[in-house]
Design goal:
The structure holds two protein chains of two kinds.
Chain A (H helix, E strand, L loop, with lengths): L7 H22 L1 H28 L3 E4 L10 E4 L1 H28 L5 H20 L3 H20 L4 H32 L4 H14 L1 H18 L9 H7 L2 H34 L2 H21 L4 H21 L3 H32 L10 H4 L1 H15 L5 H15 L4 H26 L15 H19 L2 H16 L1
Antiparallel strand pairs in A: 1-2
Chain B lengths: L3 H23 L8 H18 L2 H7 L2 H24 L25 H25 L4
Helix pairs in contact in B: 1-2, 2-3, 2-5, 4-5
């Protein structure tokens, strides 16, 4: 263990934490430096994670023991492909969002709160990274709480009535979810006597035989608890308000990253801890599959009815979370790959769309879709990038959304459940129905007030992240090879254990 | 509230409460207690002060600017102590073999445990006070 590379997971979490707690003090004396620090931390961490990935590629995945104490005494981090993949997404996407936040924040958050915004953002990033690596039930609970509180505060920091209301609703519902998770952990601890995921998994067989009710109830509580947090369909009621009223960078990070990390944690627990026997005893996978299908269709239908652009994007997230759950609960290799690759693709697309919508609101103050006629004449780059995101969402070949849908469809076929291909097709159609009119309206619509519009472009700090995300959507749509290689290894980790 | 008896007794009690809070913090690894318990006791002394005098007086005693600095730096101390072990070639938050731990029963017998509980105690005390003054005074953030 003398190779310094093994410490990278901890260092990545710690640098975000250090940044989070330096921000309020630094921001008081050198406000300009805080944003710079936050914008440096995320890409540096992403770079470190790429180095870690190389290291893990050479050898086996390993467990990192805090303080050198091996379980059952110590806390373990699981350094595997799934964790690195998710952590890499978190840091890459938040690096882009933080770039964008530089100018956007001035319109949405009071000046003296900017340093606290960076604190909350970095705290959220640290908590999500820790969730990705955690190999210990209690740590998962603690970091779930940190992420939840930070996410609520990221919404409430905008001094508007809707934001306070939405954030309060989110806080109440996700605290109920946390309560469910805690109860589930207590039940698991009661019958297995461990918190470490590996040790719980080893004792799961005997425990499930002796106390089947405990295990089943804890499984149900975990699904509901993490389901609330990841906005699985009937539990999504907090999401639309929260994600649409928040400041645009917060919307992007909440929709692009936060809901997915809970989905990943839940799926990791179900597949690696509860394992085949419990899954065989109760049709959990099929239940999630059906709920996810309903989520996909219902989320899209709700989105179809929206007139506010950010609300539409928020409802679309409900549908897209359904894709992730669907892919993984198909329990076939290609299906799991589809679900996992959609985590990355959706993070790119939805961040792009929220940031583009934020750019429109920042420049024009327009939120209603019917007001966006001819907006492309005024903001050509933003709308071009928005169109890339929209086409990606629909799943047009050549954009990254197509890759995940293709894998999901193949996965459904491999799992012998071809009916779910129909769900995917129908949802693509619905996506087209609500995304394409915006694009058509923006490019071909004529606005009565067109003469008044001067062509004002965005500041570079907002255009640049948008263009990067747009190019990434196209790049990973055309050349997804390296991404799929990583996702295949992550899927193997989930399915093989 | 403006009650001479209450205020005088508070003045007399406060140092004792605080000494007890500090005792619980630094003896966390030897006797029941620790950073969180001691920190709340320490914070409670200032809350008592705020209740018997007024919130403004407590804010003068423990201003927000100081609270921000204290809360941030105590977390940073914790993280940096953890990272120090990495610098020495061991895992994060390794204690044994990196930090000196003399004979059992003395103050620093736990290696880095005493500094860490100190950081936790200060952080908790500061947070308890800030939460109280903000909620009680209904201050704008």
């Amino acid at each position: 263990m003398n190779d310094p590379t093994v410490h990278i997971p901890v260092i990545v979490i710690c640098t975000s934490l250090i940044g989070a707690f330096l921000a309020p003090v630094l921001g008081k004396y050198r406000p300009a430096l805080v944003g710079l620090m936050a914008r440096l931390i995320a890409p540096v961490n992403a770079l470190l994670l790429v180095i870690l990935l190389r290291y893990v590629d050479a050898g086996e995945t390993f467990h990192y023991y805090m303080g050198g104490w091996a379980p059952p005494w110590g806390i373990a981090l699981s350094v595997d492909y799934l964790a690195i993949y998710v952590a890499l997404i978190i840091h890459l996407v938040s690096a882009v969002i933080l770039l964008y936040a530089k100018d956007d924040l001035f319109g949405e958050v009071r000046g003296d709160l900017h340093r606290w915004y960076y604190t909350l953002f970095l705290l959220l990033v640290a908590a999500m990274t820790a969730l990705a690596f955690s190999h210990d039930f209690f740590n998962i609970f603690v970091f779930t709480e940190i992420a939840t509180i930070a996410a609520c505060a990221l919404i409430a920091i905008k001094p508007k009535k809707e934001c306070i209301e939405a954030s309060f609703k989110y806080l109440i519902l996700s605290t109920v979810g946390s309560g469910f998770i805690l109860l589930a952990l207590a039940l698991i601890y009661m019958v297995t006597g461990h918190f470490n995921l590996t040790l719980v998994a080893q004792n799961m067989g005997a425990a499930a035989e002796a106390y089947p009710l405990n295990i089943m109830v804890s499984l149900a509580l975990l699904i509901v608890g993490f389901g609330v947090k990841s906005a699985l369909f009937p539990l999504h009621v907090w999401l639309p308000d929260a994600h649409s009223s928040a400041p645009s960078p917060s919307s992007a990070v909440l929709s692009g990253l936060v809901v997915k990390i809970y989905a990943v944690v839940l799926i990791r627990i179900i597949l690696t801890v509860f394992g085949g026997e419990v899954l065989a005893a109760a049709p959990i996978a099929d239940m999630i599959l059906i709920i996810a299908s309903v989520a996909i269709i219902a989320g899209s239908l709700f989105a179809l009815a929206q007139t506010d652009i950010k609300l539409l994007l928020a409802f679309s997230t409900v549908a897209q979370v359904g894709y992730i759950y669907m892919g993984i609960s198909l329990l076939s290799e290609t299906g799991t790959m589809g679900g996992l690759v959609h985590i990355f693709n959706h993070a790119l697309m939805k961040t792009l769309l929220f940031l583009a919508a934020g750019a429109i609101i920042h420049q024009t103050g327009l939120r209603k879709i019917s007001d966006l006629d001819g907006i492309a004449k005024r903001m050509p780059i933003t709308m071009a990038v928005f169109s890339v995101g929209a086409l990606s969402m629909v799943g047009i070949p050549g954009f990254n959304g197509f890759i995940s849908k293709m894998y999901l469809a193949t996965g459904a076929f491999d799992a012998g459940k071809p009916v779910f291909i129909l769900v995917i097709l129908m949802s693509s159609l619905l996506n087209g129905l609500y995304y394409l009119p915006i694009v058509v309206r923006a490019f071909l619509g004529t606005n009565a007030e067109e003469g008044k519009f001067a062509k004002d472009e965005l500041p570079l700090s907002m255009t640049f992240p948008l263009v990067i995300l747009g190019l990434a959507c196209i790049y990973f749509g055309l050349l997804p090879g390296s991404l799929l290689e990583l996702v295949r290894k992550a899927a193997h980790y989930l399915i093989a254990v | 509230m403006d009650d001479l008896v209450l205020q005088t007794i508070t003045r007399i009690l406060m140092p004792f409460i605080q000494v007890y809070g500090i005792f619980v913090i630094v003896n966390g690894h030897l006797s029941p207690g620790g950073g969180f318990a001691g920190g709340t006791i320490l914070g409670a002394s200032v809350i008592l002060y705020a209740l018997t005098f007024n919130v403004g007086a407590a804010e003068d005693l423990y201003p927000d600017d100081l609270a921000e600095a204290v809360e941030s730096s105590s977390v940073l101390i914790f993280v940096l102590v953890g990272l120090f072990a990495i610098l020495m070639g061991a895992n994060f938050l390794t204690n044994i073999g990196i930090f000196p731990s003399p004979e059992t029963g003395t103050l620093f017998t736990g290696g880095f445990v005493t500094p860490l509980t100190l950081a936790i105690g200060v952080k908790v005390a500061s947070t308890v006070i800030t939460l109280f003054t903000h909620l009680f005074g209904e201050k704008k953030p």
